[in-house]
């Protein structure tokens, strides 16, 4: 049995390759599984996602009218315009059959569920393995690499939770289990991030990123640097950087918790959003009556007071809708994924000799990349029978893939209440009914 321990006072041995952490097969597996999940999410959003579908709708419930996210509607309509034209000319139809639409929706949902499960398993495996090896003298460089690999699993799992919002609302037990799993994964990652939040890791970062000042820190036991807290946290850049990462993970997780529960999304934050919107419109109406009524279209009050205030209100509405859209979720995932790829590839390029050779475990990890594709092929098999398809006919009975929805208002920024005087476009408050979103649709977050 090999010796397992560490000595912070002794000079550490030379840093040797660890194929189970920085091996090319292991890195390929973690990046590959996250890439597959990212690809499935993007395809689902661009081709299958229906922004007009209420994520909190059930078969046996009749809720208030649902207000689709205007950012998702405008973007998807623009993206799907060309494929819709091609389908119309090729198949002489612009609508998929109800059965095909339901089947396609459920197929992608099952693929996303499989990808979500895979990210949970990979995230826990790398973090638990890293924590278990800390007392065996795991090198600081390898500990940093473990944290970066776990970042992929966490951000991909968070995005899967958002895309699966409607499915998880219908299956509350599954929603609870997945949130508990994500909470545990986020907790492990937060502890790992905070463990690198002190000034001793500055030297380690400098070596990793090609600024060798203290090579001793690179191969020293990571546990020797973990429980060292800065004397002045507010002035410690490393601590503040770790704290920002922790806040991002925490905010991302709790925002998913809110979005997956109707009582929080609609009952609390939706009502608060509606209350603030009503108060803001009242203030805007007061300023409108004071600055615009029976006044010249180019009056100083209208130009200096009312129009800037209206611009601020509309900008706030646009930012709010963009932040709560699934498009923002996909863009955030792309940016975070790209940033994680750059960091890992940079580390490997700086320490290329530490990658090591192909071992049994690395070959197995690469071969296991075929598992997600096999799973997806099973879901797309035409002979597969989905047990959860029953009861979805009403839920997904809205317009199918590439179905135009010309009868519904696309955005609260539209103004179609009738002819508008070009000399005084903001001279009539009644023309703002749609612009200021004064409808009775229920808001969500």
Structural class: mainly alpha
Number of helices: 15
Tally of individual domains: 1
Helicity level, as a percent range?
55-70%
Radius of gyration: 27 Å
Q: Give the number of DSSP strands.
A: 0
Largest sheet: none
Percent strand equals under 5%
Unreliable runs, pLDDT <50, ≥5 residues? 211-215, 383-420
Distance from N terminus to C terminus (CA atoms, Å) equals 55 Å
Overall pLDDT score: 74
How would you explain this protein's 3D organization?
- With 445 residues, the chain is mostly helical.
- Helices cover 62% and strands 0% of the residues.
Write a brief caption for the model.
62% of the residues lie in helices and 0% in strands. The chain is an all-alpha fold and 445 residues long. The termini are far apart.
Give a quick set of tags describing it.
single chain, 445 residues, mainly alpha, 15 helices, transmembrane helix, Elsinochrome_Biosynth-Asso
Topology:
Blueprint: H1 24-47, H2 70-91, H3 98-133, H4 140-163, H5 165-170, H6 172-195, H7 200-208, H8 215-219, H9 223-226, H10 237-259, H11 262-291, H12 300-323, H13 326-350, H14 360-367, H15 370-380
Helix pairs in contact: 1-3, 1-4, 1-13, 1-14, 3-4, 3-6, 3-15, 4-6, 4-10, 4-13, 6-10, 11-12
